[in-house]
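Following up on my earlier thread - several people asked me to post the actual chain instead of describing it. Fair enough. Here it is, all 183 residues.
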Amino acid sequence: MFKLIPQMPLGGVSKSWAGLNIAEVFSGELVSVAFDDDNSKKLNTRFKKKYGVVPPGPNTFVSIQGGSAFWSGQNQLMLLLDGENINADKDVAIKLDGLAYTSLQSDSWASLTVGGERVYDVLERFTALDLRQPRDGFAARSSAHHMAVFILKLSKTKFHLLTPRSSAQSFYDALCHTADNVI
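Reply from S.P.:
Thanks for posting it. Predicted structure:
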């Protein structure tokens, strides 16, 4: 029997500058959750029962039992779940009692952490968002150098970026190029 070994889109790259570090990380399983307006109240109740918190609202992410969740659009969430589980989407669908559509997205996204004292100097030139003002727990769906990105503010000097796997190398190259020019 063959055993498939998951590989990160960028091969686990990392690069450091004075005051900045960029590293590809394995962030666990990524599950998208979409639901109808008709089910939103029931879903909120069920989500809180199963994950310990209400679903995050716009521009936020929250810690949940077994990972974190962030708002990704109207009636849409993304769950970052700890560990490896090829059936994570099915497990989430069961937990939410069929109130949402779920899809395993882990293979579709690259995950990077960007941190250090110079993080704002670089990110403010990489994306149009003002990331200095929002509190920890901020999440945004945006673009950077014309590529899609979810940006999660983990702490004052650390961010988690998720970008589509199909453009991951270009995204990483553009981020490093920005850092080279700034630092």
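The CA atoms of residues 49 and 95 lie 9 Å apart. That should answer part of your original question.
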